[in-house]
Specification:
Keywords: Signal
Pfam families: NamZ_C, NamZ_N
Helix content: 10-25%
CATH class of the largest domain: Alpha Beta
Number of helices: 12
Number of strands: 14
Shape: globular
Distance between the termini: 25 Å
Largest sheet: 7 strands, mixed
CATH architecture of the largest domain: 3-Layer(aba) Sandwich
InterPro entries: NamZ (IPR008302), NamZ_C (IPR048503), NamZ_N (IPR048502)
GO molecular function, one term: peptidoglycan beta-N-acetylmuramidase activity
């Protein structure tokens, strides 16, 4: 089919001005199905793992593939767990296949589990940010496969935020939301990132994983790509996906990003900004999405970015830090701006930004240009290194 729909969560992703539709790695069954025949298969997948709008698990089972185990990342296989919530092992009610959580007590499959498999598949939609945990899970599954001599097939998908920007992570701030010396937006697909993990020695003992990337067809990094399904509970619209690299930094402040509403990561606000901004929203507890949101049941005042021109961010190729500068200047109690200790949801701007200097610069009143200059020469060095691993123009 060549029909192109622009609404999120339905049908085929919009592919901009491409002459031919984008085909994800998963869509190209002929490229990997023969490798699965007669094999005991493990899959690291979630609700974004689709073939033509249908779950890849259901599709492959219909085709006779012997799927023995499903491994689930943050939010779980069905994406019904809140941000940061531990996810337990379970049996998938629809297929009867064991689901093993890799977002809880452990981060990668055991030797016993991998010994029961012949091959692994990774197929998860990423959003191209250092603090989005899918790339951590990718590295962990690569490491486990390398340690146990298993091949990993990566079904690649486009990166909706395929630009490179932000400070390079200072590894003394390594954490669950930043584990690699990369900028905020790394500018790669997961297939490309896997090649970087191998090439830069980012696994234990610099071990290398045998990977096979099924490339996205008819895709270049400068293409717009609308995700066919939300990648996580609080990235539920295309607007939220495109604003996420800029707004997630506010997790390290007293400013709400709309968790606890039906418009997360498209609004910014706090109770103390009343009288400064007219726009208002009230976070509430939403089970499975935002159970204890910041400023729960309090009216927040701030910015409504639901109609912001995100194409401008994409065209500029820059994380939008002007909002952080603006809201810090506007906030009445500046000593509390970077203090999340009074909220139910914890955050630390140093770990999100990846450097301590960012917070210091905002407090000191540095301009956006001055802040950006401080990201060099690290950012330029990363861009040069990145070129070695690119699969797409």
């Amino acid at each position: 089919m060549r029909l192109r729909f622009v609404l999120l969560l339905i049908a085929i992703p919009f592919t901009g001005l491409a002459k031919d539709p984008i085909l994800t790695g998963a869509d190209q069954l002929s490229a990997y199905l023969p490798s699965l025949k007669g094999k005991k298969v493990g899959m690291l997948v979630n609700q974004t793992s689709l073939i033509g709008g249908k779950s890849i698990v259901d599709s492959l089972l219909t085709l006779g593939v012997n799927i023995k185990m499903i491994f689930g990342p943050e939010h779980g296989f069905r994406a019904n767990a809140s941000n940061g919530a531990k996810v337990a092992d379970e049996i998938d009610a629809k297929t009867g296949i064991p689901i093993i959580s890799l977002y809880g007590a452990r981060k990668k499959p055991t030797k016993k589990e991998l010994d029961a498999l012949d091959i692994m598949i990774f197929d998860i939609q990423d959003v191209g940010c250092r603090f989005y945990t899918n790339i951590n899970t990718l590295r962990d599954i690569m490491e486990a496969c390398a340690e146990n001599g298993k091949e990993l097939i990566i079904l690649d998908r486009p990166n909706p935020n395929a630009y490179v920007d932000g400070p390079i992570l200072d590894m003394k701030y390594k954490s669950g939301i930043g584990q690699f010396p990369i900028p905020i937006t790394h500018g790669m697909t997961v297939g490309e990132f896997a090649q970087m993990v191998n090439g830069e020695g980012w696994m234990a003992g610099k071990i290398k994983c045998k990977i096979r990337v099924i490339k996205v067809k008819n895709y270049t990094h400068d293409m717009d790509y609308t995700l066919p399904v939300g990648p996580s509970p609080n990235l539920n619209t295309q607007q939220s996906v495109l604003l996420y690299p800029s707004l997630c930094l506010f997790e390290g402040t007293i400013i709400s990003q709309g968790r606890g509403t039906q418009m997360p990561f498209t609004v910014l606000g706090a109770p103390l900004l009343k009288g400064i901004y007219p726009f208002t929203f009230t976070p509430v507890s939403i089970p499975g999405k935002s159970e204890t949101p910041l400023h729960q049941d309090q009216a927040c005042y701030g910015l409504d970015l639901r109609n912001y021109n995100t194409a401008a961010i994409r065209k500029a190729g820059k994380v939008h830090i002007a909002w952080m500068i603006e809201m810090y200047k506007a906030y009445p109690d500046k000593a509390k701006f970077f203090d999340r200790s009074q909220s139910k949801q914890m955050g630390n701007i140093d770990f999100l930004a990846g450097v301590a200097k960012f917070k210091e610069q905002i407090i000191a009143g540095k301009s956006e240009e001055e802040i950006r200059q401080s990201w060099e020469p690290g950012l330029s060095a990363y861009k040069k290194m990145r070129k070695k691993y690119l699969l797409y123009p």
